Amino acid sequence: MPARRHPTARQVRLGAELRKLREASGLKATEAASLLGTNSVQMSQIESGIAGISEQRLRRLAANYACTDVELIEALVAMATDRTRGWWEEYRGVLPAAYQDLAEFDHHATFRHDVAVIHVPGLFQTEDYARSLFAYMNPEFPQEEVELRVEHRMRRKVVIEGSAPLPYETVIHEAALRIKVAGRAATRAQLFRILELSEADHITVRVVPFALDDFAGAGSTMVHLGGALPRLDTVIRDAPHGTAFVDSEAQLDHFRTLFRKVKAESLSPGQSRDLIHELAKDL
Fold first, then answer.
1. Per-residue pLDDT tens digits for 249-281
2. CB 269 within 8 A of CB 181
3. Distance, CA of 23 to CA of 204 (rounded, Å)
4. What is the bridge-based pairing of β-strands 203-208 and 168-173?
5. In angstroms, rounded to a whole number, what is the distance separating the alpha carbons of residues 118 and 140?
6. Whole-model pTM above 0.85?
7. CA 188 to CA 283: how far, in whole Å?
8. pLDDT tens, 96-148?
């Protein structure tokens, strides 16, 4: 398969999983390459996501790596053979690649767990909220650039508002609900939008209240997307250098534990709705 100039984060993840399988088998890249009748350069490209891999070649590697996890092999085959070109492709080359990567991961996820401490989760944001946020964080952007980002964020909501919604659970700190990102009226509208969405069967909203003593989780903001198997989950975090995609098993376990901890410290869904309603009434 021809080399890709700009592999997606999901394609990079497939390559990383193939590399993990090879390393677990004890084979070197040159030895794996010989199994495919190719060279170490192409093997490196496959394992970095720059080059694709066919189903036949993937299954050959899995067999020679002595991988007996049938579910994992089938999940990797699905990733390798997927030809989905979703709505996010319209923004390729127009917005930073991370925007398409996030939308693609959302599309293929089996569930989504968020922890939001400073801002309302992106999938809940109203246009006014998102517009104010993008404009403030990027003061040098012309208005059309801001609007493009707002449009993309609104379209991402299809994963929780479309015909086949994703199971979605989010924990929001009260701070994110109180900060008036877009002014008083827009904040009230934002809170009522969260309340409306929280009534859906596939959505669970919990709030960490200011009243909670001994909360040290201000740095726990994350997006945890479920893969076809737990080892194929992905955690997404904003970092100073950009968006970070976490996929190591040890780190995934760490963030699963962190989500459970923050969730356990939050209010019940009913109590959370009551608190959000009170905040909205006070505006």
1. 999 999 999 999 999 999 999 999 999 999 999
2. no
3. 39
4. parallel
5. 22
6. yes
7. 6
8. 999 999 999 999 999 999 999 999 999 999 999 999 999 999 899 999 999 99
